[in-house]
Structure formats: C-alpha cells, structure tokens
Write a structure and sequence with these properties.
This protein has 894 residues and is of the alpha/beta class. Among the domains are: 294-456, Rossmann fold; 471-513 and 534-586, no CATH class; 594-709, ATP-grasp fold, B domain (D-amino Acid Aminotransferase, Chain A, domain 1, 2-Layer Sandwich); 726-891, Gcn5-related N-acetyltransferase (GNAT) (Aminopeptidase), CATH 3.40.630.30. Helix content is 34%, strand content 23%. It has 29 helices and 39 strands. The strands form seven sheets. An eight-stranded mixed sheet has the order 32-33-34-35-36-37-39-38. Strand 5 (72-75), helix 3 (82-92) and strand 6 form a beta-alpha-beta unit. Helix 6 (192-200) runs parallel beside helix 7 (218-229) and helix 14 runs parallel beside helix 15. The chain is globular. The two termini are 23 Å apart.
Length: 894
Amino acid sequence: MSIRNLHHAIDPKSVVIVGASNRAGSLGRVIIENVLAAGFEGEIWPVNPKHDQVAGLYCYRRVADVPGVPDLAIIVTPPQTVPALIHELGTKGTRAAVVITAGLNAGQGLRQAMLDAAKPFLFRIIGPNTVGLIVPSAKLNASFAHLQPQPGGIALLSQSGAIATSLIDWAAENNVGFSKIISLGDMADADAGDFLDLLAGDSETRAIVMYLETIPNPRKFLSAARAAARVKPIIAIKAGRHVEGAKAAATHTGALSGADRVVDAALRRAGILRIDGLSELFDATETIARFPPLERSRVAIVTNGGGAGVLAVDRLIDFGCELAEFSPETDRALDRILPTNWSRANPVDIVGDAPPDRYRTTVEIVAQDAGVDILIVMNCPTGLASPLDAAHAVASLARSGTISGKPVLTCWLGGRTARDGRDVLQQAGLASYDTPFDVALAASYLARWSKAQRTLVRVPPSESGQVPRERGLVQSIFRKVAAEGRRMLNEPEAKAVIAAYGIPVPQTVIATSPKEAEAVAGSLLAGAAKVVVKLISKSVTHKSDVGGVVLDILTPVAAREAAEAIVARLKAHDPTAAVDGFAVQPMIERKHAWELLLGLTRDPIFGPVVLFGSGGVSVEVVADTAVALPPLDAVLAGDLIDQTRVGKLLAGFRNQPAADREAVRKALAALSQMIVDFPCVLSMDINPLVASAEGVIALDARIEIDLHAVDLPGPNRDLAIRPYPSDWEKQIALAGRLYHLRPIRPADAALYPDFLAKTSSTDIRFRFLSSRKHFRDQMLVRLTQVDYEREMAFVALDNESGALAGIARLYADPDHEVAEFGLLVRTDLQGHGLGWALLTHLRDYAAADGLQRIEGLVLSGNSKMLRMCREFGFGISPHPTDSTLRIAALPLQP
C-alpha cells in the first residue's frame, strides 16, 4: 500500500483532459465543462486530435504537445488507447490520472497493460470506470457529476458512481459539504485503502463516509482503516448483505459464518460504524463526529411525555443499547424537585406541564449521575407549557453539544410547534432529531461506534503467554493425517490437538471393533457411571446425522450392542461407508451447564474467522452465534461472547449459577492462538463445549486441514489482521542502562510528547527532513497505529522509567521489496549505541520479512547519521533531484 503520488490527484496545480470534446452530450464535454464551472485556478490543457479548441481553450493534438507537466490527467478516451496514454503521461512527468473510461476489464488484457505502463513511473490511477474526482476546496470537479458540491468536512469514497452522484444530490438539498469526493470505480490501482491512508492525514476531512461493494485487498484495507479510524470517524455502507453463502460445509462453523457477518466483524474491528441505508449515512456521520468515543454507553431519558419515552426505550432495546440506572442520590434529588407523580424510573417523566425551570434542573441532575453516559432529552407539545421555552432552558446548559460533559441528543416532537425549539437547540450545538425512533437510532450509532473504537486499539500478540500449548505434538498429528492423505482428523486426533492447547477433554479410548468397545467400556465403567460410544469414520462428517453417537450406556454389553447398532445404521445410510473404529469415553454429565459451539473457518475475503455461540445438535436451527477476526485477546474474546444470547445466559439467572466465563474466554483464546500458529487449519468445530460453574470440557471436536500447508510456519499470513509480533521483543544493555526493544503499540502515543520535548529541534529536523515545532495528536496517533505488515516500528523503552528512548521505523513499498527506514534517538541518550542497536533490529526484521533492500533519505548536513550508515554497510548516493538529500541504501541477504 502507498499514498505515493496521490497528492497530485487531490491538490493539482494543473490538469490535462485527454479526450476533451465539443460534442454535445459526450463525456469529454461534460468533464471539461465541470472543470471550468468549478473555477479551477490552475492550468487546464485539453487534448484531442479532432479539435483545435475545446470550451474556448486551445486544444493540443497529443500529450507530448502540452507546454507543461500536468499534475493530474483526466482520461476520457476509448479503452484501447488508455495504456499508451498512461505511458505517454508518465514519460511527460505526470504521476496521477483519473481514468473515466470503462471497458478495460472486458478481456484483451487492457487493464494489465495499463498497470504495466504505470509501474515504471509509480503512476497512480483512479478508476477506471469511475465518475471521477471532486475536491471542492481546490475548486476541482474532475467528474461527470451533475452538480457542483459545496465545501465541507466530509470525505466520500464510493465504489459506485451512481451512489456517489445520488449522495451529491442529497447533500446539496440538505446543505452538506464535502472535503473530497472520490469515485473509486474498478480500483485497478488506487483503492479504498489508499484513500483511507490519504484522508487520515487530511486536515480538511473531519469524517469519512464510504459506500463499498467489494473489499479486494482486505489486509490492506483493514490496516488503513484501523489507522484512519483512530483519528476521525468512518461510516460505511457495505452492499450485498444477503448474498447467500455456501449451502454445505464440513463444519457447523462453515455453515453459520455467512460472508456478511464476517464483514460486520471486520468493520467493527477496524473501528468503523456500519449502517444499512443511504438515508442514515449523513445523520450517523453528524452524530458521531460531534463526540469522542465513550467508555460505556448507558442512556438516560428526560421527557415530558411518558409515551414518547417508552417509544424511545423500545427502540433503544431493539438497537441493543443499555439503559442507565440512577444512583440513590439522583433519585432523591429528583424527588425533591419533581411532582409526586413523576415516573421514578428511567425514562424520567417530568409530566406534561413541565415549565422551563423543571426541564433545566432535571436535566442537570440526570446529567451529573455517574451512571449516565448519553442523555436523551425529549419534548411533546402540550397546551400547558411552551416547547420553545423548554428548548431555551436545555440549551442554556449546553457546552459543545454536551451537558456536564455527557453527549446530549434531543427530540422535540411535532411539526410547526417544535420547529422553533429545534432551531434553538441546534444553534446551541445540541443534536436534534424529529422522532423517538431517530433519536434512539442516533444513540445506537454513538454506542456502537464507541464500542468499535475500544476494540480498535487491541493488539493481541502472536505469542499468547496465557495459552499453554504443545505445538510439537500438534504438528506431529497434522503431519500424520496429511501423510495418510486425509483432510479431516478423527475425533481422538482432534481432541488431542485441542487438549494440547489447554482445552479440557474427557478421556477417550479407541476401540477397533464392537467386541473391543465392550472391553474398553468395562474398564471405563470402573470409574464412571456411564459411557458414550461414538463412530469413527473418514466417510462421515457429522456423526449425529447417521446415528453415530450412543449415550447413557451403563454396561459393557450395552457398549458392544451400541457399536453394532451404529454399524447397522451407517450401512443403511451408506453401504460404501467405512467404519474405522469407535471412540469410547466416560459420559460427562453436569447440572446447570450450557452447550456451546466454538469454531474456526475460512472466509474467502478475510481469511480465518473465529465463531462462538450456542452448541448442540440443533446449532444451525438455533443460530445464536457471533464471529470475530483473530487474533483475539481476553477483551476481544469477551466481546465475542457478549454478542450472543447464550453469552448473557452464562452469567446465571434465577437458580441457575453462572458458568466459568474465564474458562470460555481461555478456550476462545486457544482457538485464536491455534490459527495463528498453524496456517494449515481450514476449519474446526468444538461442539459441544460444555460450560458450567465447574469449568469447560469439549465433548466433541472436528478439525479440517490443508494437506499442503502442514509445514507452513506461523504466524499465519492469511490473517486479515496481523498479530502483534511479540517474538520481536528483546532486552539490551547499553552504557549501564537496560532497554526494552519491542514493536510499537497504539498506546505508545502517550509516550511521544515527553520524548519529543527531550529531542532537539535539530534532531527532529534531521529525522523529518523539515523543522517542526508541534506534532498534532492525530499525527502521533498515526505514528503508533501500524499494521506490522507494510509498516513496522520498534521502540526502545528505558527499563527503569518506561520512557521512550528511541524509535526505528520501516515502511514497505506496495510490492514488499523495498522499505524506507527512519531512526530517531532522544538527544540526551545519543552516543551510547542505541541507534546502532535499533538499526540492527530493524535490519534483521526486514530480512526475516522478505524485503530485498532498506533505504532512507538523509539530509546532507546530518553527518552523524551518514557516518553511522556508512559504518553499518549502507551505500550513500546523491538524490537525483534534491541536492540537500542523500540516499542511504542497504541490500539485504536472502
């Protein structure tokens, strides 16, 4: 991924329009008219061999004839001409183009030819098959949209041109402005991930909205989204929610983890708020852009109409929101100022005759309750009190859309009577909505977005110290199964694998015949009240489908008869099916226990997925499950549990004791660690995992592997989110100090201010190639949110104080061949070898990650850095276009 040269597209000083035309109704004419109508102030050069003039401008026959180097090209020519034009523009010095032309995907290799032409110049292409690009602040409308959007703070990325123009139309009607509008088209080169990276650092953009139909490069997209979502809200519509998944799957997990559920999980993990409809897009944006993320989202309601409050509560519960419970102090304070017939509950019904002072005092008291995170204030018109006066009373308490620091959402119901009140509230900076449904939906946006933001900063390690595991044993089992040409492990093998990752399983003994099953049952019944006999067969995926499980066996003879009956049922079901044996195990019976399903599967877009929910034989019918992208830590595993109905039941109710939630979380963490460690695992079911107050135990397990991947090392490269590379942590001792070298984490943003304060302005100028007095919070967040894939950073922390002492960074090119490096050591700690140690660590990581070369730009006056690079083995060469810079390059041994 790279944003290299994309700045030429969003802030061009000159534009060439290849295919500009005078022909009425042609794209070439609409494009140049839009460019001119928007008032673009740079050079505009039409190119078309059929015209001498276009729109009153001199028209050039070829790109080569244009008198200057265009920053941005807009191409509206037949598909077969595009590759040659890209080469011609690249030779000219242009580095970005909006390719409006469609049809490059229709065979003939035109798309690839276009990309091949662009590659030598690092030429960036938006499109093809795009409506275009609009930057209102730059007075640039390089599109065939029908309106000129007004400037604003929202950036729009749309994979559909029709949706983009529809939203432009809607925004014009509702006085919404844009910072950037980018129609992504076919995303042959620049895609949503690139523009998320670009917009994350765009000072004009305060929020990003997206319409997506596909996510072609999920790891790249999630990396960019996670970085951008830390600094500004992102709201997305992802179309195709009900595309039908696979009809059959080897595991329950495969059947239950539909593609759209995985998209939901991925967007949540990236800190993105997903919504369903276009009508919600800008409302959601306006709501969450007003407030920072919340730690919790408990909602309180103040209303003068009980019915309106109940409607809002119904909707809040529908949307999964949590109602606040007031403290005794709040209840007593409300008792003192409200009529005796107030509701004495949340919603707080202050009665229909509520005067302004009652509104003001009630809202003040409720907003100060520590158990309230979001406050909804409602008003119903009555003949007893003025909605306008009530609005003034509430508005008088407002500070930046909040009261007592709590986000406030208002709902003045009605039409003519409510309109003036809404105006007063909006002028005071308070969000205002027309109906109970709308205000409840807005509260749910804020709650869901806040939760997504909390998951965003989680960086589970690749080596979880909380998961005991015997990788060697698991590797040997997988190799044995692969050597036999099998994809599915039998039950004893699968149980041995999960037991090696710390998930408890019952004792299981394999019997090769009904007679042997009788003998095994005899020995097991010496220590157990009952046994279970299960079929082992390579021909059968789900044993219960063929009557392959018999429970409640009390005697050895009954065990033999159960095995014989299993054989008979299997042969009746499929005469060709083979019986490989029987698994005999003690019958596990626990009172007040829940049957759970834990699973792993592969999504065709996002790769490995973890599933959790209700288990048992009716798992597909009950369908109470949730999915998440690995890797998981304890917090993320807990969030996954909480998304299900059974997760709430595990907490206990009435006489049902709570199950051991920590044991369930550990089992989920074990599955997550397994898929990190073993790329060969294709799917897995643990069903049921019995959970009770005594802990958990897996009664059955099923694992499918890729025979050709059993020797691939971890961490798994198929994970959409790369785990925190904890194996790259180390301790070093230098000049009497101990330092901890480790990959950077999002929380390290808090260490930067002190580090920068102790770093000289000269050292900062040498590192960033320009003088900097201030580093915005957004920049510090961006520096610490890395994906450990295209970008890596190592920090050196003083062991004693925990202070940041130095940072080394790599940023790989899109082909993952060459990476740019940067290095900065705190000024007072230089000269003791810390920079050398960081650079060595960076080089070793780059080589292990498969990079061929690392290189960096060094100011010619930075003699210390140039000397260290030479001693380290870097080659130093002059920069081809900037005499103040040197290029330090180090080839890496394969």
